[in-house]
């Protein structure tokens, strides 16, 4: 199953939904697709969707999917990475009125440079990028969370005492 997660910010990502709908209609994508479409106004005709979902259901969808396609939300990307999912990041672009700037591109490209996601910025390359995401041998992601917490804790203990 492909799970498309577009987040909860008040921005649409219609071009992604339209392209996936087309790929399903033409039987280029043959596996089931489910999308959380957020504030997008395009209504998919060829796959199931919901605007929003509870966090528990959202995580269950990620757990069940073979491929996670996401708008470049860091939390969603990290959840997918932790669950060892194939991930395709499709960032919202300012030039299409999908966001106020292109920070999502920067996020997607940064994760792609680490070898843990495939980033796709334009619909005309989506079919190839989906294949790439399925076939890519992923790098391991090592979180620095514990290290950062340790550094902060040491600093606080030094500055204010324990």
Automatic annotation (TrEMBL):
Keywords of the record, alphabetical order, are: Endoplasmic reticulum, Glycosyltransferase, Transferase
Presence of the UniProt keyword Hydrolase in the record: no
What name is this protein filed under? Glycosyl transferase
Tell me the ranges covered by the Glycosyl transferase family 28 C-terminal domain, including all copies. Answer: 1-146
InterPro entries, per this entry?
Alg13-like, Cps14G-like, Glyco_trans_28_C
Which terms under GO biological process does the entry name?
dolichol-linked oligosaccharide biosynthetic process
Alphabetically, the GO molecular function entries are:
hexosyltransferase activity
Tell me the compartments it is located in. Endoplasmic reticulum
Q: Gene3D superfamilies given for it?
A: Glycogen Phosphorylase B
What family is this protein classified in? Belongs to the glycosyltransferase 28 family.
Q: What is its main location?
A: endoplasmic reticulum
């Amino acid at each position: 199953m492909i799970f498309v997660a577009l987040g909860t910010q008040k921005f649409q990502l219609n071009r992604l939904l339209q392209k996936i709908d087309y790929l399903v209609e033409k039987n280029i994508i043959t596996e089931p697709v489910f999308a959380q479409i957020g504030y997008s106004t395009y209504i998919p005709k060829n796959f199931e969707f919901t605007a929003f979902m509870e966090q528990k259901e959202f995580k269950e969808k990620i757990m069940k999917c073979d491929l996670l396609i996401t708008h470049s939300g860091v939390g969603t990307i990290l959840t997918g990475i932790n669950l060892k999912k194939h991930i395709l990041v499709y960032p919202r672009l300012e030039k299409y009125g999908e966001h106020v700037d292109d920070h999502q591109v920067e996020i997607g490209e940064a994760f792609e440079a680490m070898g843990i996601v495939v980033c796709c910025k334009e619909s005309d390359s989506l079919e190839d990028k989906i294949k790439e995401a399925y076939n890519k041998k992923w790098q391991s992601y090592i979180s620095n969370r514990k290290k950062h917490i340790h550094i902060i804790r040491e600093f606080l203990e030094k500055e204010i005492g324990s």
